[in-house]
Amino acid sequence: MATSAQIRQTAAENMGIHGEGETLPSYESADLDQAITEVYGMLRQLNLVTWASTDNVPDEVASPFAMLVACERAIKYQIPDNRYMRILSEGWGTDMNGKAIKMIRRLYAKQKLGQTQIENF
């Protein structure tokens, strides 16, 4: 399970604002924590979360989740255009078809596979 600190650090690395092992300033940490909350809320609205907002992020979705967090803050941190385009295509993408959101949808669909819905006749 990935902690918020790990998601924050991975998102910062994805954006290129800090390297591996570097410490984020408190204002960036707070901002990325807010982005984590925002991404969680968006995924919750799409019924794509299986964990509570206070829990750690499951390992299987930690990397795509961190990419979505980076996508949410890529414009704010004024990263280079080529990196921004990569983050966008790997994050939400256009029309919610980026690699990360597709992966989360695919993983979520696998969890639902095999569950039987009981209907009251």
Would you write up a description of this structure?
The chain is mainly α and 121 residues long. It has one domain. Helix content is 59%, strand content 0%. Helix 1 packs across helix 2 (26-45), helix 1 packs across helix 3 and helix 3 (59-73) packs antiparallel against helix 5 (99-112). The protein is globular and about 35 Å long.
How much strand? under 5%
Low-confidence stretches: none
Structural class assignment: mainly alpha
Kindly state the number of beta strands.
0
**What is the chain-wise order of helices and strands?**
HHHHH
Task: Please give the structural blueprint.
Elements: H1 4-15, H2 26-45, H3 59-73, H4 81-90, H5 99-112
Helix pairs in contact: 1-2, 1-3, 2-3, 3-4, 3-5
Keywords for this structure?
5 helices, mainly alpha, 121 residues
Short description:
It contains five helices and no strands.
